[in-house]
Protein: Transcription termination factor MTERF8, chloroplastic-like
Amino acid sequence: MFGLGGNGATKHLFSIRFQLFYSTAAATTLVDFLVNSLGFSNKEAISTSSKVTRSRLRNYEPQLLLDLFQKVGMNKTQIKTLVSSSPEVLFSHIDKNLKPKIKVLQEIGLSGSDLVTFINKSNFLTRGLHTTIKPSLDYLREYLGSYDAVARVVKKEPRLLSNNLPKVIPPNILLLQNLGFSRVDIETVFHRRPRYLLNNPEWLERVVNQAEKNFNVPRESRMFLHAIEALVSLDESKLERKLDIFRSFGWSDSDICAMVRKLPYCLTSSEAKIKITLKFFMNELGYEPSYLASHAPLLKYSMEKRVRPRNEILKFLKENQLIKGKLSLYTAVSSPESRFRKKYVLPFKEKMPELYDLYIKNSS
Structure:
């Protein structure tokens, strides 16, 4: 009926059975390699093996792959991480595919632990050398001026070379230019927060406007990029819940904006941390929102390891009149540990032995 005679049908059936047998055997061999050579559990190995097509199972050289990655400095745990996230590298041609890609990284100055970290944090090995990687490197070189600068940027954000940068980045640069960013400003974004340039322009414009218009952070402020970084980590509902906590303690929107201008990362604290911190400073110590907003770092320090232990020391010194002059908790909390101990703890060690021991324990 389908044009297959008895003999043809038999050969076709045999071919199917052979391919199935071969694929199953190859898959089993792959699982064994992952378990025995890379430390996968049997469950992990089966899961990773299932992510690759059976047609590719005959096209890999596991020991050569292992040798290559170990040669560039990767240990087996790092190779396992790479294979888990990008199992297709197992079937890449070593001489024609993997080595040339690693070579271009070495040519721009990546080596040793920098090279290993880049490979582990980027799936660039699965990208085309001539369609994505080299065009992206050329684009970065042209914009940043040197391969040294390119190396610094890609170390900062390994995902850059997983994207077609000549297509992805120019719309974001144009947007920033239209918003008034100078070339120096944009280069600063490249060097400090390159991942921002991988997002779509609408997203970037929304975050820039939110920082500038909603929180009144001046674009020329050194905190502007930090404000953007803080805001990108928060969706609208999470941000609004945190703002409501501040408002519930009597903070005005101008107080909140002042805090964000001073230290935007106050918005990244957990809701529980914000509540605990505000209860301590406002309910226990009587601080006003305006003071906390202008001394925003107080809100980010660890309450249990820094703020409370140091406050107890200052409280003891004040009550026992052991130190002259006004004692500022902000100054004390902001001081490096060595300076705080030298000025406020060690000179009075014998007068407060129990408090001293407790402080050392809590601040460790």
Summary: Residues 235-300 form one domain.
